[in-house]
Each structure stands twice: as C-alpha cells, then as structure tokens.
Amino acid sequence: MPPRSTKQSVVEVDQSEPELDLGDSRPLRADAERNRRLIVEAAETVFAERGLMAGFDEVARAAGVGVGTVYRRFPQRDDLIDALFADRVQAMVALAESAAAIEEPWQALGWFLEQSVAEQAGDRGLAEVLGDGMRGSRRLAQARERMLPAVGDLLARARRAGVVRPDVEILDLAVIGSMLARLSTDADPELWRRYLPIALDGLRQRPDSAPLVGGAAREADLTQLARR
Amino acid sequence: MPPRSTKQSVVEVDQSEPELDLGDSRPLRADAERNRRLIVEAAETVFAERGLMAGFDEVARAAGVGVGTVYRRFPQRDDLIDALFADRVQAMVALAESAAAIEEPWQALGWFLEQSVAEQAGDRGLAEVLGDGMRGSRRLAQARERMLPAVGDLLARARRAGVVRPDVEILDLAVIGSMLARLSTDADPELWRRYLPIALDGLRQRPDSAPLVGGAAREADLTQLARR
Amino acid sequence: MPPRSTKQSVVEVDQSEPELDLGDSRPLRADAERNRRLIVEAAETVFAERGLMAGFDEVARAAGVGVGTVYRRFPQRDDLIDALFADRVQAMVALAESAAAIEEPWQALGWFLEQSVAEQAGDRGLAEVLGDGMRGSRRLAQARERMLPAVGDLLARARRAGVVRPDVEILDLAVIGSMLARLSTDADPELWRRYLPIALDGLRQRPDSAPLVGGAAREADLTQLARR
Amino acid sequence: MPPRSTKQSVVEVDQSEPELDLGDSRPLRADAERNRRLIVEAAETVFAERGLMAGFDEVARAAGVGVGTVYRRFPQRDDLIDALFADRVQAMVALAESAAAIEEPWQALGWFLEQSVAEQAGDRGLAEVLGDGMRGSRRLAQARERMLPAVGDLLARARRAGVVRPDVEILDLAVIGSMLARLSTDADPELWRRYLPIALDGLRQRPDSAPLVGGAAREADLTQLARR
DNA sequence: CATGAATGAGGTTTCATTCAT
DNA sequence: AATGAATGAAACCTCATTCAT
Q1: Of 3.30.540.10, 3.60.20.10, 1.10.357.10, 3.90.1110.10, which CATH number belongs to C78-227?
Q2: Where are the residues of the annotated region Disordered (chains A, B, C, D) (predicted)?
Q3: Residue B27 has what pLDDT?
Q4: Which residue in the set A190, A198, A214 is minimally distant from B203, CB to CB?
Q5: Is B20 helix (H, G, I), strand (E, B) or coil?
Q6: Which residue is nearest to nucleotide E17 (CA to C1')?
C-alpha cells in the first residue's frame, strides 16, 4: 500500500480486468476448470522458484495432475505464462498508478521501485516476464506495455521536480529494477533491500551528477537481460 | 591504466606473476601446445557467451578438435576453468593493487570498480568464476581470495576519507560489480557504463545517506547469485 | 522334476511366490505393461548373452523402444536386474527345496546341481546374479540368501549319509555349479552336461578320497569369479 | 619338476626354439631392443592380470614407454601375444612331455593337470591363449598344436591302464583345466587347488562310472569359452 | 478429457588405435 | 625410432514435448 500523504484523498485505482480475451468461447467442464486452477496454482509456485523455463513435469507433479493435462490446457508455454502473469503485470501497472497518488515525486518513484522489486524478487517468473516482452502472448504484452506510460508519468514528475537525474529513462528504471530483483538468495531473500537505497541515491539528481553515458537500454536489451 | 593524480608520481605496481604453479613439469609438445591454445581460445569465447557450464562438445567444435582432445588436456571442467581464468583473476587482483596507487580514495575505488566490471562484462565465465568460489581449483581459489584484502584496502581508505557510505562492505562491492557486469547485451555490450555512475553515486557518502539495512552479502549469497 | 524314488510318495513342494513385493502400488497401463514386457524380454536375451553390464541402448534396440523408455521403467540397472532375475532366483530356491523331497540324499544333491546348472547355463546374467551378491537390490539379495540354508540341508543330508566328501561346503557347490554353467557354447549349449557327472563323481565320498586342501570359497571369491 | 620315478632315466626334453621365424630380418637397434624387452616384461604382468585384451596404454605405462612404441614394435595385438606366449606354450608342451617320464599313468596325468593349471591360474593371458586357438599368430598356433599329441599320449596311457574314464578326450582335459584355472581370486589365488582333486577323482575310471554324454568339446567351443 | 508413457536428440565421458612431431 | 596427442565411435543418462490409451 502506498504511504498516503496526509489529508489527501487517493486516486481510486481501477483494478478491473480490461477484457482483452479473444473468444476463448465456452466455459470449461467443471473438472477441467478445477484442474486448470490446480495447475495455475502449482505453476505460480514453480515458476516463482525456477523461472519461466521450469519443466512442465514439475508443474504437473506439484498440481497433482499428469503432464498431458498441463499441455492440453496450455499447449504453448506462453499460454500458461499468460494465465499466470497477466494479472500480476496488471497489478504492477496498478502499482505505478497507485504511486501517482503519492504527492512527493521522489517518494512516489522510490515507493514504486521498492514495490515493484519486492514483487519481482520473490518471483523469478514475474521478473522474467517483466523483462522479456516476447514472453506470454498478446494479452500479456498489452498489459506490460501499459507500464510504460504509468512509470513514465512517475519519472516525468520526478524530472520536473528536479529530483531525478534528468537523463534517466523509463527502461533504465526497468533495468535497475530487474537487477535489484535478482538480489534474492535462499539465505537472504530480501538482500535487495540493502541495495535499493544505493540505487535510489544513485538515481537522484545531485549538483555534481555527471550526465549518463550511452543510450538508455532498449527493449531488446531488456529482453536479452531477462533471458540470461 | 589508472588516471594519474596530477603532479604526483605513481607507485610502480608489480604486475609480475607470483609463481603459483605447482609442478606442471615439462612443456607440451608443439602440436599439443597448439591444440591447447586452440581449445583455450575457443573456450574463452564459448564460456564468455554461455558461462562455465557450456558443453565440452561445443568447445571442441569451436576449437576444431575432437572432444577427446579437450578431455585429455582438461580432464575436469575445473582444469579448463583454471586455465582460462587463473590469469584473469590474477589480473583482477593486480587491478585492485594498481588502484592503490591512485591517490584520491574515491577515484581509486571508482576506477577499480570500472575496470573490474569492464573485465567481467561480456564474459559470463569470468563473472561466474569471480562470484562462485567453488569454481575452478585450488590455484584459482587462492587467486580469488587475494582480491578481498586488496579491495578491502581500497574500501577502507575511502571509508577513512569519509567518501563512501560507512557501512558498505567488500562483498557489497562484489555484488554490485557482478550485477553491473551482467548489463551487457549484444546490441550494447557496454550498457553497464551507463549504470556505473549511478552505482557509484549511490555508494557515495552523503550528508543525508541513510544507513544500509540488513547484513552485507555473504560468500554463500554471492555464490548463489553467480550460479543463476 | 525330481526323479521319484520308487513306491514312495513325494512331499508336495510349495512353489507359490512368497510375497516379497513391497508396495509396487497399482498396475501399469496397458501400453506401458506391453513395453515393460518387451523390455524385459529383450533384456533377458541381451543379458543372457552379454551379462549384466550389457548396454541399455542395446536392450532398447532389441525391445524396439527408445532408451528413455528403458530408463523410465528401470531407472537403476539393479531395477532391471531385479525384474529379470528375482523370480529366477526364487525358482532356484524352490529347486533346492524341491530336491529335499527326493529321498536318496545323493540323488537329491545331484538333481539339484543339474537343475541349477541347467538354469544358469546359457544365461550369463543369471549366473552373474547368483554369483554376485551385490547385484540387484534388496529383494533379490534376500531371495539369493535363501539358497544357502536350502542347499545346506541337501549337503548336510548327503554328508550324514556319508555319500559326499565330508569337507565340501555350500559355497564349494556354488563355485562348481558356476564353473559348470559357463560350459555352454553356441555350438554346444549343453556342453556342461558332459562334465556334470565328472564333477559329481569328484564330489562323492570314496574310501580313498583325500581331504580337500585350503578353505572353501568365500562370498568374496564367488563375487569376484562372477564378475570375471 | 616331475617327480622322477626311481631308477628310470628321464627323457630329455628338447627346449630349443624350433626356428619358425619367417624372416624378421635384421636385428633391432640397441635402444629399440631394450624397449622391446621392457614392453614384453611389462606386458607379461599386465596380460597376466587383465588378460589378452588389456589396454596397450597400460602396457606402455608399465613399460615406461609411449603407446606408440608398443604399436610400432607390435603392430598387431597378436604380435605381442606371440612374443609373450610362444615360449610359455612351449613350456607347457615340455610339461606334458616331462609328464611322460612319470611312470605311473594316473600320476602322470594328474601331475600334468596340476602343473598346467598352476601355470594358467596365475596368468589370465596364458589361459586365454591356451584356450583360444585364434589368438597369436602362426608360430603360437603351431606351438599350441603340439600340446595335443603330448597330452594325448598321457591320456592314452591312462586309458590303457584303465585308470581314466575311457571316453574322456584331450579337449575335455583342456576344458577342465581351463575352468580350474579360473578359480583364482585376489583373496585366494590358489583356490583351484581345492577343486583339482575333485576334478581328478571325477575323471578317474570307477566300476560305476557312467559313460559321458554328448560329444567332447571341440576347438570352437574351447575358443568361445576362452573368450568369455 | 486425463493420463503418464514414449520419444530421441544432446550432453558427458572413455578408450583402442592412428599419426604428426 | 619414440612419443603421446588426437581421434571419434559408443555408452551413459536426461528432459521437453508428443501421443496412445
């Protein structure tokens, strides 16, 4: 939850699913639906731990169904990825939109970065999805694309306020967030929290800030980084 | 090369190999030596791209020799890792020692971080070796261990000078360097250069620096991160 | 079948499987069962010819299935060995127990030796299993261990009757049986039948029998001989 | 040495090399000759332990020369086998001829069997050579062939004296000797001595000896048995 | 519709023999 | 002539995906 600025009403965030479905047609049979849910739930855990390339075998085992069932329900890996992460990505967008409600621009940006890393750090799959625009299908991609303007707004605000390095771009934040999110280990799953303030201080505009060199990361870079 | 502080003579740094060899006995025959070099060169490329777990098959193919030849020369993967990286790690130590010659503590630290990331970036193998103390054999481990005091000195100096956040520890630098080193893509192999100043600014002591939370990374964390 | 001693009814021998199964749980699917049988049948031939270390690849080829299938069904070589030989070893025990029903002690021993060699001859795999107590898993080992008392009884009876050399021990019989079993060739698979009476005559107590020298073979000897 | 029968002069055994060499032409250079000897000596040990298929690599290592040297001197495995075993086989022939000097036919046969097994038991290579007529080249084969009449004489004499089962043939003795020779383990290298009297007693003609069934072993059988 | 069995390519490693040095 | 390096076929085993039941 965003730290509410005092006596300020927070913009209501629209959490409703934007109906991007393209004719999945009729509903599943009751048992099929149950299995579908079991699979999704299992995959959430498995993908969170092992990433998007985790074996369907493991998912099936965790769900208590046969592999075949997983493949029938999700013939392409991307189908499962979609089912798992469309909502999560939506939630990330919502997060950025929520952050817009924080009055202080720097706090807004910082809060968002923290939240978004917190989400990704505990979920390797989510981190890969956010980084790799090629993952999942149309629906997921669309959700993902909505992050850009939302984060762009946070960034623009901070830039206007002169609190962030002026040449930081949206994908720079994505890169930094994605690197921070990797800083999670068995021994210290929240290791990233130690480095977040360093990243934030580094992003902050200072009298002596040198201009950033080179161009910002591009989608293709992000994709490749996410696939590592 | 270190940026020389003005009008100051720089201490001569000893770059000579400290003779860690343990009885490799006599030199290889000419053809074997040639193949060895082919293999090492091929492995450099392959490991740089695919990491330490790249297939020996691929190395052999790239070197234009049979698999058996690779196994004859390097019966254990660690033998090949040693051959590839012992010098590189030595060079990293030398780098840290070179940096000691830079008068200005902050510059020394920054220069070292830059150099060390430059080495690791684009060489996934080296990055894995530096992160994962279990890789390679004794000789490599020894070389790697020498980094700690060398970097420790740089850090201590910066801390005494009050220019670095006082609670940053050596392994924090290793973590940050290792993350930066990952920021290298086909499209922009030097992407990391854009984020280095951000990291450095974030490491710098400021009047308003908040203390870092949690404990610094431990060896085990570093290892796990490197294996990702 | 044991040669019945005249006008004497023979004790009914219990040939039923003594239920050693440890929760194999539910039966295999029809196709899996079919493949399992194909594999076992193929392995019978292959192991009979090449011994227990025959390649899984060859078994798979002979069975007309992929290697993976063999590994799925029998992840450890010992699993396959068990499946192939547990019943065979059981049958050998039953053989010894059957022999107990033969009234004449010498005939009982001879009949058993003949039957047991007949089983082993031409089946290198079985011979190795019987000789090498380390092969196969628990279940097989247990079955194998039951041979000792059963054969011991036959031997004791013959000794009490004074028809066998008094210093022959159980493992001596195992050694002799195992050597005889090797006497099977493509040209004459039953070559051993020629040497069996020689061995038996040699085992028989005679007025002039010299005592045997040295100690009897030990398990370790038998194991090593079987591995040859 | 044969136990000399009293007051009987022993036939002088011709130990001289029968010059079967076919133009090996000129003598080796001094160093080559030295290496040849080193190799043969090493191979004696190695083949004795591991049999005729032992790796040339191992022989080379034991000899302290390169593998290439072994292959140069003995391009075919059979060449080395010849060099190693021609004399040994000669010696076996001599043994049989020596045995002829023993007056008592049964003792002669028994003594020969004991000696010949003793030779083979300690030398797996020799055992394989004696069994497998295809091993080695012409010269060795010729030496080997000379065993037949020599042993044949011992056997004929015993048969005439009525002390051996009348239907035992020469190759039966070879089979029995070869099986006995296998009864040698690390724990008890002379295990075969325990079973030799059993075999001998079994070969002995008794009032109640049943005729042997089937035909005697043929060369082909012996060969296959030796290759096991 | 659910199942989990089957597949087979791909990586690892060894070893008998050949051949460049 | 001696060397030991190089070879490559072959066995081992795994795993993502397809398909028969």
Answers
A1: 1.10.357.10
A2: 1-26
A3: 67
A4: A198
A5: coil
A6: D71
